[in-house]
Amino acid sequence: xxxxxxxxxxxxxxxxxxxxxxxxxxxxxxxxxxxxxxxxxxxxxxxxxxxxxxxxxxxxxxxxxxxxxxxxxxxxxxxxxxxxxxxxxxxxxxxxxxxxxxxxxxxxxxxxxxxxxxxxxxxxxxxxxxxxxxxxxxxxxxxxxxxxxxxxxxxxxxxxxxxxxxxxxxxxxxxxxxxxxxxxxxxxxxxxxxxxxxxxxxxxxxxxxxxxxxxxxxxxxxxxxxxxxxxxxxxxxxxxxxxxxxxxxxxxxxxxxxxxxxxxxxxxxxxxxxxxxxxxxxxxxxxxxxxxxxxxxxxxxxxxxxxxxxxxxxxxxxxxxxxxxxxxxxxxxxxxxxxxxxxxxxxxxxxxxxxxxxxxxxxxxxxxxxxxxxxxxxxxxxxxxxxxxxxxxxxxxxxxxxxxxxxxxxxxxxxxxxxxxxxxxxxxxxxxxxxxxxxxxxxxxxxxxxxxxxxxxxxxxxxxxxxxxxxxxxxxxxxxxxxxxxxxxxxxxxxxxxxxxxxxxxxxxxxxxxxxxxxxxxxxxxxxxxxxxxxxxxxxxxxxxxxxxxxxxxxxxxxxxxxxxxxxxxxxxxxxxxxxxxxxxxxxxxxxxxxxxxxxxxxxxxxxxxxxxxxxxxxxxxxxxxxxxxxxxxxxxxxxxxxxxxxxxxxxxxxxxxxxxxxxxxxxxxxxxxxxxxxxxxxxxxxxxxxxx
Length: 693
Ligand SMILES: Nc1ncnc2c1ncn2[C@@H]1O[C@H](COP(=O)(O)OP(=O)(O)OP(=O)(O)O)[C@@H](O)[C@H]1O
Hints:
Elements: E1 3-8, H1 12-22, E2 27-33, E3 48-49, H2 56-59, E4 65-68, H3 73-82, E5 87-90, E6 93-97, H4 102-113, H5 118-125, E7 129-134, E8 139-142, H6 144-150, H7 154-157, H8 162-165, H9 171-177, E9 181-187, E10 193-202, E11 208-217, H10 219-244, E12 248-253, E13 258-261, H11 263-269, H12 273-276, E14 285-287, H13 291-298, E15 302-309, E16 314-325, E17 328-338, H14 339-359, H15 373-386, E18 392-395, H16 402-412, E19 420-424, H17 430-438, E20 439-440, E21 453-454, H18 456-459, E22 464-468, H19 475-487, E23 489-491, E24 498-500, E25 504-509, H20 513-518, H21 524-530, E26 533-536, H22 547-562, E27 568-569, H23 571-578, H24 585-599, E28 606-607, H25 615-619, H26 638-656, H27 661-668, H28 672-681
Parallel strand pairs: 1-2, 1-4, 2-3, 18-25, 18-26, 19-22, 22-25, 27-28
Antiparallel strand pairs: 4-6, 5-6, 7-8, 7-11, 9-10, 10-11, 12-13, 12-17, 14-15, 15-16, 16-17, 20-21, 23-24
Helix pairs in contact: 15-16, 19-21, 22-24, 26-27, 27-28
The protein binds adenosine-5'-triphosphate.
Adenosine-5'-triphosphate binds at residues 368-370, 396, 398-404, 468, 510, 550, 553, 586-587, 590, 690-692.
């Protein structure tokens, strides 16, 4: 509010100005009392400047506007006679604008000029509402702001009973008791909130002539206060979100200086507030360009930019967006993602996926590497076979990928959502195999108390059963399998009722079934049933075109298994592998690459020839001639000693035969089934072994 000096001459206008001075509506520097006996001018003593009409005194005051509020011709002429340089004369009023308000002078002057009646001008220019009531309780004056606040036109209010205009008015009361009420809160009929001061008008004879109210619309202020409270709440909320966010956040101002970071930012970059707040946006970058600066320059967001930040050179990906408020650039906000965290999450996800796949048929045709023509033929046959319900017979040496094909065929078939069950016919004791495959009736083995059990054929109903090592089935089990293939039904062990099943059979073998038929070890009728769709997978040595692609595939697979980052293999190393004949096929290749990766230094990321074992020494097997050391016999029974010796012999011969079980069994002169039994008995790990050669 401007600092106003009011010059009065004892007329009606002065009385209103006095009231204004009393009610704090204007900040009044003082009143020039030209006619000391003027009615209505009864101000506090120290506010009176008794100067007569010497206006120069005014200039010494710290005032913005001096307004002569009377039409008194004499005063007007006096002022004109002494007019200071900045004084502007307006008809009916004199306005003096000090240099402090020079900028507003023009506007004020033209405003003043448009008002002939200064009193009304002042009162109308006041932001506060004013309403005057006479002794008949009727409205005798309202200003413009009162119109705005009360929501009525001046003509609608003048000469109307005050209570019609403001139903809750207390002006009649103030008039009756003759006492003012200062700064009272009031809610108007139209919902507006006002703060009002009510004052009785008392004439020189000390008689009440009416009362008036000056009121300020505080609706906006109250709303503003509420808005500010809301804004404060939002600010607190946002701060809490940013502080607790797991995402690292950094904010800079429009000049690119650090404004704010959160704890996640410190965790990832290692930089604290003192390192970045108020510092240029480049402060946290250890490699790359500051994206904050780029965004401030272009006003466009950037996403997914790779950078290195902080003293630890952390690998991160950043997204930065400009903050534009009402079209003005206020700064930018960046969100930083820790790449190593993303990487570890991705590999965790991959592992989880792998585990899930382990529970089902793991592989699809996409997992089968086939570059050579030979492999592509096998692959094409398998894909065609997958779409038919026919029994598939996979043939090929151990480790060529027969199981891989079986998985892929199941996953490509319409049965993919049902079970895939793998049975290694050589690994299960013959006595158990039948009941495993076909199930048994209650009481079949040990009296009526024993519950019956479904066999694997029933388990895999609507799915597929993979019968690996089918050449190892006994003639008895072969007969039962033939029934499954012919009738589509099984009979549980100990039962008589056939159970219809719909299980697709995928069989695999590496033995020469034709030779087995001739030797009377395999049923010819079963052979023809199984051999409807034979797929031959050639040994690796006959399709060396697959070698490089297989090696790269295996490196990726083993990287995941071992948590390594091996990226390549040298040409020389590939060359040395091409010279090998791989009796254990792809499984052996996998073992060789795996071993090379284990022996590699953690700083190396390329497999070189030195990492590959010398194959010549591996192929020879004359070391069997070497004597095995006798076990330490101290405190051992003969049986313990024999067991220990047997175990050592098994391990040694397995090693000499590259863990190929058929070769080992043949070399030891025992059946493969017997070998499985002994491996179990001595707890020898079979996971890395080949079944046959
Ligand atoms: N073409 C191929 N592409 C990718 N991986 C392969 C391929 N062939 C074989 N492998 C991998 O080699 C290993 C041996 O394959 P698989 O177990 O399928 O052989 P197999 O012929 O069933 O062996 P066995 O007769 O001893 O049971 C597996 O880890 C398999 O994933």
